[in-house]
Amino acid sequence: MDTGLEESMGAICEDVAKQLGFKVEHDVNLGVGNISQVWSRQDHPNLPEMKYAVQILPERGDVNPDVITSSALRSLWTDCDHLIFVVPDNATQKSIQGKVRSFDAIGGFLQLHKYITTITLSELSKGLAQSTRTTMARA
To answer: For residue 70, with 0-12 CB atoms within 10 Å meaning exposed, 13-18 middle and 19 or more buried, which class applies?
Structure first.
């Protein structure tokens, strides 16, 4: 695993989160395993705080199904509302999305495709740039 890539991906994710108004916690572990980042924000005082588990995966290519299921369980047990995998490329993104669809085909209580989002680092950064331009144009 390339720790330099993981650190730079983490820094970019943190920048995006902060620009979107999220509070960021690093290396969250409530006894069930490590989550790279947890983003949280409360948009309204009478609504619950929304928490997103952000799992940074610097590995490229095929992702082991155990990584997906263990990350999903960790984020659920950490009381997060959604799990976001941030990956370096489209091939890794497709690998995770395909496995999530196959998990859902088995059936069960939790439909993972509604709980898990997979995004490449470039999509995350590009989406922020577009969001910022739109916000500035409205101001």
So the answer is: middle
Q: What is the pTM of this model?
A: 0.83
81: domain CATH number? Answer: 3.40.1350.10
Contact 11, 36 (CB under 8 A): no
pLDDT in tens, 13-48: 999 999 999 999 999 887 788 999 999 999 999 999
Burial class (CB in 10 A: 0-12, 13-18, 19+), 134: exposed
**Cα 126 from chain centroid (whole Å):** 16
**pLDDT tens digits, residue range 75-94?**
888 889 999 999 999 999 99
Number of domains, the chain: 1
Q: What region, left, alpha or beta, does residue 12 occupy, with left being phi > 0 and alpha being psi -120 to 50 degrees? A: alpha
Backbone phi and psi for residue 23, each to the nearest 5 degrees, phi listed first: -85, 140
Give the domain extent around 8. 3-138
